[in-house]
Amino acid sequence: MAGRGNLIILSGPSGAGKSAIAAGVLGAMTGLRFSVSHTTRPPRGRERSGVEYHFVSRDEFDDLIRRGEFLEWAEVYGNLYGTSKRAVEEMLDTGSDVLLDIDVQGARIVRTRCPESTSVFIMPPSYRVLRERLEQRQLDPDRVIEQRLRNAWDEVRLYPDYDYLIINGDLAGAVEELKAVIMSLRCRISCREEMARAIVGTFGGADAQDP
Ligand code: 5GP
């Protein structure tokens, strides 16, 4: 049976490129699954329920909170977002590594509840670049962009709480760095214990054989 997977938290200010980095890594690595969050935000563009998010009503979200279904949840820019505890557990139990793309409030909760998780902070290379990216993606009115930039002012200072820092200057480089973090987790002794024991077993005695 496969061992338990690694839980990887990806967080950082809005516009730093978390979703693009997550998509790049998910497309390039096997054994890695994305935790599809629930949200009360309406779908944007071509987003489909069950793929980018599970889009739910405020009542449905409140019901999920009441039933204790969330590992964490938070309000982000007026909408609610939450991570399904059961979905994450099931994926980890089957041996998959699981990637969470969540805001800094959610990241703090998951770090506390799951101390074995690995947290990765995504930082833009500068304030100017973050502003340009938020303006270029044309998702938000000016008022919301200004609010995201104000929040980013506080959020970028949270990087020391994380295990790893990726500065997203160019997307391809950032994707490679996150892949390297995940590969290094997979190489830890604790993840390879079972395999190592089996190999050591082949050295067991005079009549030991390769499996
Ligand atoms: P967006 O609406 O632009 O897709 O996401 C807005 C913010 O919510 C992003 O920072 C994203 O990482 C965060 N987010 C997405 N899913 C979750 C979640 O399940 N929990 C928390 N705390 N934040 C989330």
What does this structure look like?
- By secondary structure, this protein is of the alpha/beta class.
- The protein has a single domain, classed as P-loop containing nucleotide triphosphate hydrolases (Rossmann fold, 3-Layer(aba) Sandwich).
- 44% of the residues lie in helices and 20% in strands.
- The protein is built from 8 helices and 9 strands.
- The strands form 2 sheets. Strands 2-7-1-8-9 form a 5-stranded parallel beta sheet, with helices on both faces.
- Strand 5 and strand 6 form a beta hairpin.
- Helix 1 packs across helix 7.
- The longest helix has 16 residues.
- The radius of gyration is 19 Å and the shape is globular.
- The mean pLDDT is 94.
- Guanosine-5'-monophosphate binds next to strand 5, strand 6 and helix 4.
- CATH fold name, please? Rossmann fold
Helical residue percent band? 40-55%
> Structural class of the helices, strands and pairings?
alpha/beta
Unique ligands? guanosine-5'-monophosphate
Q: How many domains, in number, for the residues?
A: 1
